[in-house]
């Protein structure tokens, strides 16, 4: 078996590194969330739809699902990342109006959240 791995250019160290890289452990970030009404096309190429449970994030890959928890009332919503942003300091996620309404009234505008990759 070791010769087969070596012939394939694999070592136990590289296999271990791969296992860590693809670990399903979720990480969370605490920040502020807002909503946006966009329009047109998202950065992923999808048409912006304010009635879908989607969101914009600066770095998470498109298609990533995250749970967004409002820290003041503990309400949560699960969204899929399909756009880039927000571009305001202190904010880490922009939600569609439908997603924002699931955790707070639109009139609130900005809420403190915890974002967890699922």
The proportion of residues forming helix, as a percent range, comes to 10-25%
Mean pLDDT reading: 84
Work out the helix count: 3
* Order of the strands making up the biggest sheet: 1-5-2-4-3-6
Q: Class by helix and strand content? A: alpha/beta
Strand content: 25-35%
**Low-confidence spans: pLDDT under 50, at least 5 residues?**
1-25
Total beta-strand segments: 6
- Our Rg estimate from Cα atoms comes to 18 Å
Could you name the key traits of this structure?
alpha/beta; single chain; six-stranded mixed β-barrel; 118 residues; globular
Word description of this protein:
The structure is a single chain. The chain has 118 residues and is α/β, with parallel strands linked by helices. 19% of the residues lie in helices and 33% in strands. It has a 6-stranded mixed barrel. A hairpin with a 5-residue loop joins strand 3 and strand 4.
